Automatic annotation (TrEMBL):
PANTHER family, alphabetized: OS06G0556300 PROTEIN (PTHR34223:SF51), OS11G0201299 PROTEIN (PTHR34223)
Gene3D superfamilies according to UniProt: 1.20.1280.50, Ribonuclease Inhibitor
Protein name, per record: F-box/FBD/LRR protein
Source taxon at top rank: Eukaryota
Taxonomic lineage: Eukaryota, Viridiplantae, Streptophyta, Embryophyta, Tracheophyta
Amino acid sequence: MENSLTKMIDENSDRLSNLPDALLIHILSLLDAKKVVQTCLLSKRWRNLWASVPSLHFNYEYLSNESERFSNFLTLFLHLRDKAINLHTFKLCYYGSRTCASSMHCSALSNTEAFSIDEMWILYAFKHEVKNLVLKLWENCFKVAPNCLFTCYSLEYMQFNCFSEVKADIVCLPKLRKLSLRNVSMNGDSIHKILSGCPVLETLSIQFVTIRTNSISFQTVKSLRMENCFFYSLSEPTISISCPCLNYLKFVQCTGAITFTDMSRVTDAIITWGKNCKKGYNFDLLEDILGVEYLELIIVYAKEFLDRELKNGTTFNGLKCLLLDLCWNNCNFSILSSFLKRCPKLEKFCLLHTTYSCEVCCCEEKTLGNKWQVAD
């Protein structure tokens, strides 16, 4: 009887609380900051664990969409947190008041106040040697990205998504390997400082970015993702883009007068050319990646695209796998046949006709996955 009672008590015990601190803290690192704090009410065992979590996720939507409440919570959280614990990840999603009744109410959230608060939070993360920084900010947070954003000796990954202008004065990100910029604009001086201030940068993603410059040199970048970007040359006829170390390229509906150079190392490429590109298309992309081995082309106006790209008799001697996702309403199969004849080492070919290729007016995520295995 006593053994049965002991067994029953053991089965009903709190097994989760009996786990080691390191494992519990890892579990808490996967939760939003609000939920992390709420765990302190579970028992004495959980009371102080939240203060040692190294990965912080602050999401505005989890705090009833109240700007002042969100700001106070975040500031108090950082103030009470264990200062001896460095940060691994700091993620901030702040979209402002989505329930504003009028534009006048929106303007009540002053840019100055939001900027000063955001800068304090960022500086806290940098002081605690954060490795991963993710900022998804509302367009009224600030018009110009804070300068402190680009000086951190510990940062290895940064994602910055904010409707603002980037004016980088001093850039020192010696350990940054991955950078993602979205919904920003910048001039040539700023992008040059960012690239030169990130000596080990290998992966770069720019989406909905406006760039005003004459030339860009991605000296260390091995993986480049460019989606719905707008390039404006300041004085030259075209913008020269150099990528001497590039292995992977994803190029989706970018517009502007562009000349690519030093792209002989590209072996894997995905190119989307839709309706929005027809007027703003002024470059020969395929001619610059003749060493490509795996190529995916998602094209609306196939004839115009291939006529332009193949006008110089280009031959793709290294191409082994080709996937074409075309809008057949705008496709000329004679030019397609000519394209295939210029791929002497082609091993796999897949021809698709999807709604995506016919209606690709804006950037969408498309995972092709195992479609390479459709045809041998």
